[in-house]
Input
Amino acid sequence: MTDMKVRVRAQSENATKTVINARNFRFVIDEPAELGGTNDGPNPVEYVLGAFAGCLNVMAHLIAKEMDFELRGVKIDVSGILNPARLFGQSFEERAGFKEISVMIKADTDADEATLEKWMQAIEDRCPVSDNLQHPTPVKIAVKATVPQL
Amino acid sequence: MTDMKVRVRAQSENATKTVINARNFRFVIDEPAELGGTNDGPNPVEYVLGAFAGCLNVMAHLIAKEMDFELRGVKIDVSGILNPARLFGQSFEERAGFKEISVMIKADTDADEATLEKWMQAIEDRCPVSDNLQHPTPVKIAVKATVPQL
Output
């Protein structure tokens, strides 16, 4: 298979609220009031955990089909621990992002434990979001001022 | 500052569509038809890139304020390259997720280039999503069948 390019475009509405365009879809990101925001949507780290759950659901069904067992549905609970000290510039001792992420997948299925163990390992190995969270990814950030510099 | 726990709960609606609950918010994740989905929302990797843009916006404004320059707004373009071969189980040569991510931040500001360079470095260092993409994060996944095992 060939490489795919995935792209989104974002625009700030205020200091914490961002509108994202992805193909013909649009979604809103904001911070809750207690983190200084206008609370018009989930915050960035909630979207990361949600994206992880969404990716696990796709993989869960795809791999159950390959393994030929019936999966009637999944409920997924995802949580992560982070310390906002670095974000707010108050301390640089800890990392900025999640220090750990925990996932519980509740599967509506009659498959046995050994099958589910094998299934889970394949899900984890082949899920793109799982990979990007667990392994380093090169990121390039460029900045340009839209007002011409003198 | 003390650790925060961030949590979302997800439920599959079908093999590709997931409904996410984060506090009082709800959002829908799906895959486009060409990836076998029902196309009712952005897909997981689009949410990851969008979350990254949303996080960069928050950091951009927070740090501009600390550095005492006026930031009237930002537009952020985020793209990533991935090969879906591993996801579909067709080849295990490449990683499952994004191999690289590129960001362009267009800042509406009169700040000079040296200021923007320093600003960008602080954004990148203190943005939680940037950290979780660029550095490894421990992930624990547990599975439970909701139907009692015999």
